[in-house]
Design goal:
Order of helices and strands: EHEHEHHEEEHH
Structural class: alpha/beta
Largest sheet: 6 strands, mixed
Strand order of the largest sheet: 2-1-3-4-5-6
Shape: globular
Strand content: 15-25%
Number of strands: 6
Radius of gyration: 17 Å
Helix content: 25-40%
Bound molecules: inosine 5'-triphosphate
Oligomer: single chain
Number of helices: 6
Length: 195
């Protein structure tokens, strides 16, 4: 049995503006007051986990402890099939702020490969100040395009064409990403269980 989120306020633990926007849109219908970790000056804890689950939980628990409020965090990334799932949990560190460069480096690694399949994974964690937490997973599958297309979204979005579409998340309307993304799928599970 999942714990229900009865509190009216919650913290969104992320320093990534793209995530913050997407979560704010997803949470809009639920009429909760959202406080970003940026507003509370909560530092990003070091992501020492070896899995998306460990890192998501670590971030959410950290924010819940520091703020005294229930906190939501995600750990997410791009997993490239022909690269055995890399960069995965290291997606942000692999780019180090330079996504054009990161997409090019991945594309170069795929130069002699036909397989361009990839997926985004998101593990969402909700944690309470008493140390209780739950996690939910979402994935979206697709293919990597070259050159990257468009400027919508963030991170690797211009590089990723979801299955069933011809354009990348960088071009597709943000409403489409909001409906089919790894983040929205993890969020739907969270809604089903906790709201
Ligand atoms: P926080 O830990 O503060 O939330 P972060 O960006 O460091 O921010 P992660 O460690 O979870 O977050 O790294 C996720 C990275 O995976 C993100 O920086 C992007 O490079 C990539 N990523 C995740 N979701 C994505 C999406 O929806 N579109 C494009 N890239 C995404």
């Amino acid at each position: 049995m999942s714990r229900k989120l009865k509190e009216d306020r919650l913290v969104l633990m992320t320093h990534n503006l793209g995530k913050l926007k997407e979560f704010s849109a997803l949470l809009l219908p639920y009429k909760k007051e959202i406080i970003s970790s940026k507003d509370l000056d909560i530092e990003d804890p070091e992501e020492t986990g070896k899995t998306f689950e460990e890192n998501a939980k670590l971030k959410a628990l950290f924010a819940a402890k520091v703020s005294g409020l229930p906190s939501l965090a995600d750990d997410s990334g791009l997993e490239v099939s022909a690269l055995d799932g890399a960069p995965g949990i290291y997606s942000s560190r692999f780019a180090d702020g330079d996504y054009q460069g990161a997409m090019k480096r991945i594309n170069d690694l795929l130069a002699d490969k036909e397989d361009r399949r990839a997926n985004f994974t998101c593990v969402l964690s909700i944690a309470w100040p008493d140390g209780y937490s739950e996690t939910f997973t979402g994935r979206v599958f697709g293919n990597l395009c070259w050159p990257p297309m468009g400027n919508n979204g963030f991170g690797y979005d211009p590089f990723f064409v979801p299955e069933g579409y011809k354009e990348s998340f960088g071009i597709l309307d943000t409403k489409i990403k909001e409906r089919i993304s790894h983040r929205s799928r993890a969020f739907s599970e969270f809604v089903k269980h906790c709201l």
